[in-house]
Structure formats: structure tokens, C-alpha cells
Amino acid sequence: MSRIAYVNGRYVPQPEASVNIEDRGYQFGDGIYEVVHLYDGKYIDEDRHLDRLERSLREIRLPMPMSRAALRLVLREVARRNRVTEGLLYMQVTRGVARRDHPFPAKPVPPAIVVTVKRIPPYPTDVDKWGAAAITHPDLRWARCDIKTVNLLPNCLARQAAREQGAAEAVLFDEATGLVTEGAATSFWIVDEDGVIRTRHLDHSILPGCTRSALMAELAEAGIAFEERQFSLEELSKAREAFITSATSFVKPIVKIDGQPVGDGKVGPVVRRLFEIFARHVKGGLKNAA
């Protein structure tokens, strides 16, 4: 059965889905996207993702293509039509179709929206097999990384560099300061040499990750201390443990960076516990989705 996409008000087979060549998302990257994990038929941290979608749209002065209630119905219908209960949903909103010109259309046009979903392997159960390697890479992105835009070329180049070195992620850093920002497509965390769980504070340099936020809420509820405090490449090199979070990585241990082991090169006790905590959040959290 062909996968079904929602495109500007219609549910169509993906091979037949199309957008206008003058869609501003295609020509200018003038759009916003979200990726949401679907587990057991429920969208995990759905409200966090929709809140971030609306915030990103506001930041680029683009209206929601429909009400939140209507969008929720579309998300569920896309999953139902594709018979997917464990997967990843992708939604993208652009400024729509207009004659190519850099300023916004003088006469506003309807935003364009595309929603797709695909199956993914089951949620990981063995944290020791979930560990991965990373590389460090200069952060070449624009100055508003807090907005989840479809402008991802620097991220793609960083991820490609990681792949070519046999790694799963690129840890981005500011070349001027040596401070770590985040992963190319993830939030990045360490357990520093003093045993403190740390991730960079929110600012324009990083995306406010939904999985990051959800994990922080779980840590607070469990009484586990953490700090939103930036760290340098030097501090990274001394870290006891490291991990990434995202809607696709969940809590993923990073056991090697630039070919060197993190700590003893094995999944550490802190990340092991956080992996278990987040697994409970995903698998037991009816609060995640309606």
C-alpha cells in the first residue's frame, strides 16, 4: 500500500503528492517543520511540539494553517490512513505559493502544509546497543537556531561529515569561543568531570528541544539535579558521560567522540538511568497525548 500524505487539504498517495515550484519553502526555505514520535498510536509530547510549531511560526510572522484542534485531527488521520502506530510524523508549514521575490508576498497567500508519517523500528530496549559515536564540528548555522526552520544545509553538511567518519552525530561548537552549542539534529548533554548533568541554556544558538524539555521535567520530578550551563570542548573532553536527546534519538548514549572514548567508552550509570526514565515517559505517559 502506498503511503498517504496530507497536502494542502487533501489526502493523497505520496507518489502523487506535489507542491508548486513557486512554494516559498522550496525556493527560500521560508517555512517551519516539526517531527513527532508516534508510539502505540499516541503522539509523544504532542503539546510540546505544537507549542514549538506555533512559536516558530510566530517568529517568522507566519500564521498557523489551521486551528490546533483541526491540526490534531489531521495528524491522527494521517496515522490512521497509513496504519502506523509506531513511527515518525513530519509536518511542514511554508509561506505558500507566490511569484518569486524575497520579501513576503504583498498580498498574503494561504500557508502551505504537508504532513507525512513513516514506520520506524520499535523503541530501543537495550541501552548498551543504543550507544553511538560522534564527532565535533564547527557550528556554521545562522543566528536564530531557536527557530525550527527548514533551512538545514549546515546541519546536513555536519551530519554528512559525521557519517563519513562512522559517527551518528556531529557535536557543534562555536569556533570563536570553543563552546559547544548542540548536535546537528539533537540536544547535547554531558555528565561533567564532577558528575553534574549539563546541557547548554536556551538562547538563540540552540533549538528548544521537546525531548530535552520532557527529560528535564522527568528529572525534576525524580529529584535528579541538572544544570543548564554551557560547556567548552575542553570540558567535553573530560566528561564522564555524554548523550543526545531528540524525538528520534530519545536518550542516546554517546560513547566515543572524535575517535576517543567518553569516560571508559561504555554506557555510564547516569545515562543508563536517564534512558530508563525516558522509556517510562514514552511507554507509560498517557499525559503525552490525547
Automatic annotation (TrEMBL):
What does the record give as EC number?
2.6.1.42
Q: What GO biological process term is on the record, naming one?
A: branched-chain amino acid biosynthetic process
Enumerate the catalysed reactions.
L-isoleucine + 2-oxoglutarate = (S)-3-methyl-2-oxopentanoate + L-glutamate; L-leucine + 2-oxoglutarate = 4-methyl-2-oxopentanoate + L-glutamate; L-valine + 2-oxoglutarate = 3-methyl-2-oxobutanoate + L-glutamate
Q: In which pathway is this protein known to take part?
A: Amino-acid biosynthesis; L-isoleucine biosynthesis; L-isoleucine from 2-oxobutanoate: step 4/4; Amino-acid biosynthesis; L-leucine biosynthesis; L-leucine from 3-methyl-2-oxobutanoate: step 4/4; Amino-acid biosynthesis; L-valine biosynthesis; L-valine from pyruvate: step 4/4
Cofactor field? pyridoxal 5'-phosphate
- Which EC class is this protein assigned? transferase
Q: Which UniProt keywords apply?
A: Amino-acid biosynthesis, Branched-chain amino acid biosynthesis, Pyridoxal phosphate
Q: Name one GO molecular function term.
A: branched-chain-amino-acid transaminase activity
Provide a GO CC annotation, any one. Answer: cytosol
Q: Per its UniProt record, what SUPFAM superfamilies does this chain match? A: D-aminoacid aminotransferase-like PLP-dependent enzymes (SSF56752)
**Which Gene3D superfamilies does the record match to this protein?**
3.30.470.10, D-amino Acid Aminotransferase, subunit A, domain 2 (3.20.10.10)
Please explain the role this protein plays, according to its UniProt record: Acts on leucine, isoleucine and valine.
Say which family it is in: Belongs to the class-IV pyridoxal-phosphate-dependent aminotransferase family.
* Name of this protein: Probable branched-chain-amino-acid aminotransferase
